[in-house]
Amino acid sequence: MRSFFVSACLVSTMCAGIAVAQSPVAYVYVAEDTSNATITSPISAYAASTEGKLTPLPGSPYTHTTGIMIGTNGTHFLTLDGNYTTTHNYVHVYKVGSNGVIGEEVSKQDLHEWCQEEGGGVLDHTGQYVYLVGSDACDPGYLSFALSKSGQLTFRGSLGVPVDAGVLPVFSGNDKFAYNFVPTPGSGAPCPTNAFIGLGRESSGALENISFSETDPTPPAGGYQTSQLGLVTDDPTNHLASLVTFQEGDCGQSGPTQTGLASYTIESNGDLVSTNTWENVAPLGGDLSTGWAMKMNAAGNIFAITLGTGLQFFHFNGANPITPFSGKQIIGDSGYINAMDWDGDNHLYALNGKSGKLHVYSATQSGFVVEAPGSPYLPINNCTAGGCSPQNIIVRRIP
Length: 399
Fold this sequence. Notes:
399 residues, mainly beta, six-stranded mixed beta sheet
C-alpha cells in the first residue's frame, strides 16, 4: 500500500495535502522611471500564476540596475540612462535567468555620439532589435540597434522623423512596419494630431521612411474631418486600434467634436485602411483627463484604455468595428492608471499613478472583468499628495 501511494503521488497533480508547484505564465517587472542616471532604479519583479496572483522573484527588488526599463526578450533585460547632466548615457543589457531573475550586466552601449537619448526605447516583437526615441535635447527620431544572443548591441542606423520625445513606435504583428504620430501642436494651436507617421524596417533592422496612404473612418457630412488623437495599440494579425476624433471646421473651432475608437488594417505595403464610420466607432465611457495609455492583449481580441480614475475594456474584432464590454463601463474609482501590460492569460497589470499600487485584472472574452486574488500590490511606495514618481511596467509572457 505504501509503495502504491508514493507512485500515485508521482503521477497525480495533488495528493493528500501535497500540491505540485505551478509554473508561472509571466514575469512582471515594475520600476520608477528615474531621470537621474546616477540613481539606481530598483526593479520589483514577480512571477504570475494562471490566476494572476503575484509572487516576488528571488532577490527582488533588484538594486543593481540603473535608468528606465526598455524591455526584455526572455534572455536579456534592457534599461536606458536618462540624465542630461552626465557626459555619457548608456543602454544597459543584463542577463535574465530562466526563472525571470535579472542578473549581471553583460554589456552597455555608449550613446554620447548620438547626443543624449533619454526619450525611452522599445523592443520589437522578436526581441532582436531595440529602438530608442530621441529626447528634446536631440534631433527627434529613432536609433536602431540589433541585440545579439550574447547581449551585445550593434548600431544599425538613425532616422530623423518629427515625433514627440518619449512616444514609442507601435509595430505591426509581422514587424515589417511601425507607426507613430506627428506631434500635437503647442498650446497656441489646439488641433489634435492629424495623421500617422509610417515607417518600414530594412533587412538590417533599421527603420526607414515609407510612402503609404491612410484611409480613416468616414466622418459626418457637413465639413467634418477625421483626426488622430495620438493613442494606438496593435494586435498580432496586423491591425491597429486608434483613438480618433471627428471635428467640424479647422481644429474643431467651428462646432462640436466626437471621439471614439476605430480599427485599422495594415496592408501588405504598409497602407493603413479603416472601414469604420463615425456611426460605428466605439464611444468612450469616460474622459481622458488623467493617464494616457492603451494596450492590446496577447490574443488581439481585448484591449483596455485609461479613462478618468480607471480603465475601460473593449472587444477588438480585427477590421470590424470595436465594441465595448457590457456591464460596468469604468473599472476602478480612485487615482488614475498611468501604465499597464498584459500576460498571455488575459490578466492586465495596471499601475495606479496616485497610490503606487499594482492592480491585476482578469478579463474574459464574454465581457467580464474582476480583480485577481491578492490584488492590489505595492511594489513602489514613493507617493506624495500629488501622486507617485513616474512608473513603468513590463510583462514577459511565457509561451
